[in-house]
Design goal:
The complex is a heterodimer of chains A (about 425) and B (about 180). Chain A is α/β, with parallel strands linked by helices. Chain A is built from twelve helices and 23 strands. In chain A, about 30% of the residues lie in helices and about 25% in strands. In chain A, strand 22 (about 370-380) and strand 23 (about 385-390) form a beta hairpin. In chain A, helix 2 (about 40-55) runs parallel beside helix 11 (about 330-350), helix 2 (about 40-55) crosses helix 12 and helix 7 (about 190-205) packs parallel to helix 8. Chain A is globular, with a radius of gyration of 22 Å. Chain B is about 50% helix and about 0% strand. Chain B has two domains: about 1-100, Cytochrome c-like domain (Cytochrome Bc1 Complex, Chain D, domain 2), CATH 1.10.760; about 115-180, Cytochrome c-like domain (Cytochrome Bc1 Complex, Chain D, domain 2). The longest helix of chain B has 21 residues, at about 1-20. Chain B contains nine helices and no strands. In chain B, helix 4 (about 60-70) runs antiparallel to helix 6 (about 85-100). The chains are: A alpha/beta (about 425), B mainly alpha (about 180). The interface of A and B includes residues 49, 359 and 393 of A.
Chain lengths: ~425, ~180
Amino acid sequence: MKRRDFIKYGAVGLGAVSLCAPNVFAAGHNRRRVVVVGGGYGGATAARYIKLIDSSVEVILIEKNDQFISCPISNWVLVGMKRMSDISFGYQGLAARGIQVIKDEIIGIDAKAGYVQGRKGKVEYDRLIVSPGIDFRYDLIEGFDDAARKMFPHAYKAGPQTVQLQQELQALQPGGTVLMTVPDNAYRCPPGPYERASLIADYLQKNKKGSKLVILDPHQKIASKGKLFKAAWDAYYTDIIDYRTEEIIASVDAKKKTISTYEEEFKADVINFIPDQKAGKLAFDLGLIPEKKLWAPVKPLTLESTLVPGVHVIGDATDSLSSGPMPKSGFVANSMGKVAAAAVVAELSGKKAPLPSFANTCYSMVSGTEAIFITGVYKYDLAAGKNIKIKEASITSPGRSAYYGKCADDWATSIWSDMLS
Amino acid sequence: MLRVTIVFLMMSLAVGSVFASATEQGDGARLSRTCAGCHGTDGASPGKVIPIIGGQVEKYLQKTLGEFAADKRPGDVMRNLAKGYSTVEQKQITAYFMARPWVNTSHAVASTAEASLVASCKGCHGSQGEGKGSFPRIAGQHPDYLYLALMEYKQGERTSGLMKLVQKLDETTLKQMAAYYSSLN
């Protein structure tokens, strides 16, 4: 096995060198090293499960933020059901397992030499796992300049924009109007915008008498858990929700605070614009996205990139035509993290990667207390040579219930501990 | 028809055990990792209503998965997910979780109940609620989960032999029983 010498850090990273170096040097010259870039649902899980499966593998997690902030449950924060501190976590649990956590932004790769380049320095690897998440396609909309990005928060990557939208909703006067857009396929968390709409409607009903919520959706109908959302909206929010389909936004105007389709201009007191999406910048920077494409193609058995050998791509950034018919969800990213971890550990020991096994369990709140859900089981079909959906296991809940709402809360507690503890 | 079903069941059990012993223990781990998203790593559920399954009695886990797959238990996600796995895979999954360490709930509720309250539970669930045969461990399980389960038995949504006894008990008593067992180690 090729030997790594050290983590090469420049002046900025000297602190990291003096902290990390003893560890790295003491490791001897024949440890296998996996570098994981991106500490979200996919990456944190992958890093943790490599250690759980084989603690002798050296694992380095590189993440540009100090903290993990969860997208699932961030809709709850928008309406005051949870606080930001409830969905924000440090990486100390992973560090305690012997995973080296480095704060840096990775901007390049030399796959032949086997290292990734960060802003602070470079890190060598035997195998690389990346979990790039998503970015927004602002370029599709006319007028989406910096002012517009500030004026129309997406709040679809949990963080400062989650707080901004929560504060805007809180400041809304009774009788005001909230407008939100739904992104076109493929996008992160298919039921996410509809759960958000449900929770905002519930919030307006309880706190902002006479207010309206306009939803502009490019789809012909609700794109996920449709019947269940519709039943809840018909039961609870007919006075509040104005749901419009096949609405394609062409332009925005930050000065006038308006957004426009080709036919109509919309004004509102609060505008939550969730743009169309593509794989996170990291995936493009590392050459994992084919020309003119938006998502990273991978091998279905191991989630290794079909473009760059030795690099496994997991989570929302993967191209579902290659990875399988899984939705871009946190649970699937968690599942993919485990599949990539098992594959990498096996292959580093000269063994064949085990067959993959994926699942999805996704709850959406339709009110402050009631939830609906969808599940999925996905397996590798040897004859077809790809991952397929098991139909009987991949269906929605029969209805909505407060018990499912409690399960949703448990879901979060559990999956966060499965990633970070 | 019944005989055909029994023969089929016996065959699938036989095939299952042969297969399980012939494959690496890794198959159970591989399939079971996805369960951790809701049940916690190795089934040590940190939640309140999603039960701890790591270290649970194996026959009970098998029975439960089978009942979910056959729509014989009240609906939640497990009714869908169980259908995603063959009988063989279900056995691999339950064997994996049975062999994990049991981690007691962190939500145990201090109980002031007299031991006589649970005297009739011990025959099946063991003197300390540790479970035996196909009867689950209930000691150290989440109190909210235990209460929900008792309520499902009370309302007849779930049935299992002697559990119909709880139909005579009121909700306060059931809550006390749940608290009692949650705090046992």
